[in-house]
UniProtKB/TrEMBL annotation:
Transmembrane segments: none annotated. PANTHER family: BACTERIOHEMERYTHRIN (PTHR37164:SF1). The keyword Hydrolase does not apply. This is Uncharacterized protein. Belongs to the hemerythrin family. It comes from Fluviibacter phosphoraccumulans. It holds the Pfam family Hemerythrin. The keyword Metal-binding applies.
Length: 155
């Protein structure tokens, strides 16, 4: 395990991100996937340097499948702000791929920094874009309060 010592000879455990109740969207499959997403972030925060590239690759595999599932849901429900939502997923994946190249070049700290920076992004994304998608999946695209255009989309 990577030491994050602040006092010589005294190692502390790596920071772990606890699940936040506001990330629960009451759609069981989406919530399960989001729990896995946070677990992958925590894995990147905890691994030693020599395992960071594998952890980033594992995160990429999870995130590609995660975003693809959401894309299918958006397509199947004709989710109005799907272009914005998919665009945000694409931008995140592009950044993750850039970070992966840096980790492959030996910059392991950037992998941990990626994990840290994904948390505020996920916090906002889950409570806006994913919340709107979960609402449509649960209540239906014609339900009162369902997005009709770019509602719930920060683009």
């Amino acid at each position: 395990m990577t030491s994050t010592a602040t006092t010589p000879g005294v190692a502390t455990a790596p920071k772990q991100i606890p699940w936040q109740d506001e990330w629960t969207l009451n759609h069981s499959q989406m919530d399960e996937t989001h729990h896995e997403f946070i677990a992958e972030i925590n894995h990147m925060l905890a691994v030693p340097d020599d395992e960071m590239l594998a952890a980033v690759d594992q995160f990429i595999d999870h995130t590609v499948a995660h975003f693809e599932q959401e894309r299918v849901w958006m397509e199947n429900t004709n989710f109005p702000p799907k272009g914005c939502h998919i665009g945000e997923h694409d931008r995140v994946l592009a950044i993750v791929q850039q970070v992966r190249q840096m980790v492959a070049g030996g910059d392991y700290a950037i992998g941990r920094r990626l994990a840290e920076e994904l948390v505020p992004w996920f916090n906002q994304h889950a409570q806006t874009m994913d919340a709107a998608l979960a609402y449509v999946l649960i209540e239906g695209p014609d339900a009162e309060g369902a997005p009709k255009s770019h509602d719930g989309c920060a683009c």
